[in-house]
Amino acid sequence: MSGWRRAACVAAWLCCWGLAALLPPAARAAQDEPVQALRMARIQAVIDGRPQDWRTVPLPYHWDRLHRNHGGRAVVEARFDLPGGPSAQPYTLYFPLIGNAAAVWLNGKLLVRYGDLDAAGRDDYGKIARQVAVPPALLAAHNLLRIELRADGGRRGGLSEIYIGPTEQVQAHPAARAGALRYAGSLFLGAFSLVVGFIALMCWASQRVADADGRLRRETLYLWAGLAELCWSVRVFDALIEHPPLAWPLWGVLMTGTYAGWVGGVLLFCHRAAGWEHRRSMRFMQAAAGVLVAAGLVCSALSFAWFRPVLLTGWLGAVNLCAALYALVYMAATLRRPTTARVLLAAAGVLNVAVGVRDWVTIRLGNDLGAVTWNRYVSIAFGLALLYIVLRRFQQASGQARELLGTLQARVAAREQELASTYGRLEAAAREQARNHERERILRDMHDGVGSHISAAIRQLQSGRSTSDEVLRTLRDSMDQLKLSIDAMQLPPGDVQALLAGLRYRLEPRLAGAGLALEWAVQELPPWPGLDAQAMRQLQFLLFEAISNVLQHAHARVLRLEADAGPGGLAIRIVDDGCGFDAGRAPRALQVRAASLGARLGVRSAPGRTEVAFTLPAA
Amino acid sequence: MERMPPIDARPPAEAWGVLAVEDDLRARAFFESSVRACAGLRWLAGLGSVAEALAWLQGAPQRPDVLLVDLGLPDGSGVEVIRAVRARCPDCEPLVVSVFGDEESVLASIEAGAVGYLHKDSAPEDIAQTILEVKRGASPISPMIARRVLAKYRSLRAAEPGAAPPEQAADVVPSLLSVREQEVLTLIARGFSYAEIARLKGLSVHTVQTHIKNLYGKLAVHSKNEAVFEATRLGLL
Q1: Of A487, A490, A501, the CB nearest to B189
Q2: What per-residue confidence (pLDDT) applies to A30?
Q3: Which of helix, strand or coil describes residue B42?
Q4: CA nearest B147 in A: which residue?
Q5: What angle do CA A426, A432, A433 make, to 5 degrees?
Q6: Which residue of A has its CA nearest to B100?
Q7: Strand (E) positions, A257-383?
Q8: Closest approach of chain A CAs to the CA of B188, in angstroms?
Q9: From CA B22, how far away is CA B70, in angstroms rounded?
Q10: Contact check, Cβ <8 Å, B143/A522
Q11: Per-residue confidence at A13, pLDDT binned at 50, 70, 90?
Q12: Which residue has the higher pLDDT, A3 or A427?
């Protein structure tokens, strides 16, 4: 199953990393002079201002165990001999634990002070190991080490066994190495948790994911993980804080709170990562986490107030128990339906529970004052699992985005193609329509113009009554119509001026041939809107008709063409000095064409002056 | 179109030699009879194709004074004949034979170097008359063609700044039309006859006709310049 396989890879990587960090480095070269471990001391404690008798105790001197969680001060004296006398090389004193505050004297000389001995509940130097360089001049064959201590109740104060020897040997000693590792480990793991927690909270604050019901919600997975990691980073960094901002035992209660916060956050994170956020158990888990934190704060506070460490120990035990139970349930669910996240988290959970139980037994129940929690090291598994989940989600999201983008592109391309083919069809239809219009126009033109003239010529010839002059005139009309028709193709719509000029050019030879003088009284005409190609052709026909009438019937000597544009419209007048006709019976062809143009036809006729006027109304 | 009064018959020796290249035999016969009927004109030959025309020019027994040419010949365009004639005898004036005198064909022939055009359906005496008028310095132009020339001139002017290389623009456009030519063209486009224009502008009819004929020459030169310019632009020259 891919979940198992992926989880196995991640776990193997984690194990390698963990082993590399935890393995002790290779032993150093042979030691010239052995490091002495001082395991017995004489002490005199002062509890609640009452000095107690001197007594000899084994080291470590576990203050809380010996003095039942009451704070106080003590003087510790330990003796050691250097049989060969001090050599010239530098010496070092090494304390796996000393504090909470302390001052160290060697042969009556002050070597070092750790914190304020008088301010109870303030400084705490007893969380990491301490080394003190000893000037060789201070050493003698028989030496007295005198240490003044201040310890706060329940703060794991006291004095561990003491190591003394040449600096090089002391630093190579396993106890000193463990102390160095604890320091570096706390620094690294605290920083790691801080970074991971910060990233998780940023993810929570900045991202919204669509819920099953489609609503956008913040991802609580990140919130729980972020809170857990931040709590844990405070908890781990505490080892490096010598001057806590809060006085003991308030600071102690807060530290218990951060531990509780870590456990609660991790539980909720695991629950959410398993995909159970919509189950009723999620609510239960949230409530349980709240109770766990509250109980931790209460137990811790009471344990310090009543000097009853058992309360805190009990709470820690209960936490371990609950966590173990939850880990079992989680493990079972994972076995049924494994996913990579579940497998990783189940493994991390089991590991942490096991280590948590070990820590609880060693530190809360055992007597080893210098013992270190292992939990701080293995907790990193949750942080790594979270990072894995985040990366996996990012990978999935970017994969989905790529897929979406691909789909979108395909859809856009399909739509574009569809549009192009629709456009092509429309264009083809428009072209077809334009062709049809043009065909119609040409057919009508031929019918009204050339066609009618040629058929007239045929009739004239068939009847045998027409003179050849008459037939010739009809054929010339036909030719003129053809030329006018060709001119009309080039006429810009609305350009009546060009239309009249072309008409004159085409008809003038006929007028001259008929001995008809032309008077040209055409003013400058503006382009006339509303006259399309069809209307221009109609106007040509109309004028041709009118001029033909004058040519054929009027017996005139002068033909005058007038045109002007005014507010009343564009007026064209054909005036001749011929015999005239009955103005009440204007030629029907003229009436029909004028009507189709929307032009007003006005005819005034008397012998010697006939005027046919067309007025195109202003658009 | 303004008609000139009929001119006096000239002695045949001084009559203008007319060469016709027209594949339509009836039209050719019609031209021949029209020319032969006119004392001022001399019929040289009637040919039916570009090849025949080029061969005839090669032999060149006489130089033609006037060339009547159809643009659509069976083996090529009349434009080739116009070029060959213009190269051989620069004084010869080509007239294009057109059925309709429509803008497209007339403009194309003018740009090829023709100085005018004849309508196929003209009366025989009008054919001779037009040829004689052309030899006396006239050139026919229709209002439609005048309008097209003006439009072309205006578009050239509009494209002038920066469009063409400076030396080309300075060379071609200003020399295309003088102010007077532009006025005359505008009036022709409005439908006025040469005589009316002469009256309106205080010119002689002959001056108006000269303007038009010059214009034809300019159009031909301009189209040649345009071709050179285009060829230069395309890297052919």
Answers
A1: A501
A2: 40
A3: strand
A4: A498
A5: 90
A6: A483
A7: none
A8: 8
A9: 5
A10: no
A11: low
A12: A427
Around A562, how many Cα atoms within 13 Å sit in the side-chain half-sphere?
Answer: 14
Q: How confident is the model at residue A398 (pLDDT cuts 50, 70, 90)?
A: very high
> What angle separates helix A280-305 from helix A309-336, to the nearest 10 degrees?
160
Cβ–Cβ contact B145 with A under 8 A: no
Q: What is the pLDDT of residues A472-500, one digit of tens each?
A: 888 888 888 888 888 888 888 889 999 99
Tell whether the model's pLDDT for residue A22 goes beyond 60. no
Query: A575 phi and psi, to 5 degrees?
Result: -115, 135
Cβ <8 Å between A482 and B100: yes
Give bridge partners of residue A210 from the DSSP assignment: A216
Given CB atoms, is A504 within the 8 Å cutoff of chain B?
A: yes
Question: B76-77 and B72-73 as β-strands: parallel, antiparallel, unpaired?
Answer: antiparallel
Hey, which bits of chain B come out as E strands?
A: 16-21, 41-47, 66-70, 72-73, 76-77, 93-98, 116-119
Q: How far apart are CA B193 and CA B3, in angstroms?
A: 10
The pLDDT tens digits of the residues spanning A590-618 come to 888 888 888 899 899 888 899 999 999 87
Of A555, A495, A517, the C-alpha closest to B193 is A517
**Integer CA distances (angstroms), B179 to B176, B185, B196, in order:** 10, 10, 18
Helices (H), A447-494: 452-463, 468-490
Angle subtended at Cα B219 by Cα B17 and Cα B231, rounded to the nearest 5 degrees: 110
Chain B hits for A476, CB-CB cut-off 8 Å, are 121
B196 touches chain A (CB under 8 A): yes
CB A268 within 8 A of CB A288: no
- Tokens 């109304």 belong to A617
A67 contacts A45 by C-beta, under 8 angstroms: yes
To the nearest whole Å, the CA of A485 is away from the closest chain B CA by 10
CB A587 within 8 A of CB A516: no
Is B1's CB within 8 Å of A498's CB? no
Residue pLDDT, tens place only, B9-22:
444 457 889 999 99
Give me the amino acid identity at A459.
Answer: R
Give dist(CA B69, CA B53) in Å, integer.
10
Read off the tokens for A291. 């109770």
Contact A52, A45 (CB under 8 A): yes
The overall pTM is greater than 0.80: no
Tokens representing B144?
Answer: 């439609």
| Other beta carbons within 10 Å of B187 | 20
Cβ of B199 under 8 Å from any chain A Cβ? no
Q: pLDDT (tens digit, 9 = 90+) per residue, A367-387?
A: 777 777 888 888 888 888 888
Q: How many CB atoms lie within 10 A of CB A204?
A: 19
The count of other CB atoms within 10 Å of the CB of residue A442 is 12
Contacts for A144 with CB less than 8 Å, ≥ 6 apart? A77, A78, A79, A106, A107, A108
Nearest to B180 by CA among B169, B188, B170: B188
Lowest mean pLDDT among A248-262, A583-597, B98-112: B98-112
Tokens of A45: 């404690």
What is the average pLDDT value for chain A, to the nearest integer? 87
Q: What is the pLDDT of residues A437-478, one digit of tens each?
A: 888 878 877 777 788 888 888 888 888 888 888 888 888 888
Tell me the CA distances in angstroms from A291 to A2, A75, A298, B177, one per residue in order.
37, 42, 10, 103
Does the distance separating the beta carbons of A498 and B143 come in below 8 Å? yes
* Minimal CA separation from B215 to chain A, in Å: 19
Cβ distance of A520 and B192 shorter than 8 Å: yes
Distance CA A418, CA A314 (A): 74
**In this predicted structure, what is the pLDDT of residue B47?**
92
Q: In one letter, which amino acid is B69?
A: V
The residue behind tokens 């052709």 is A537
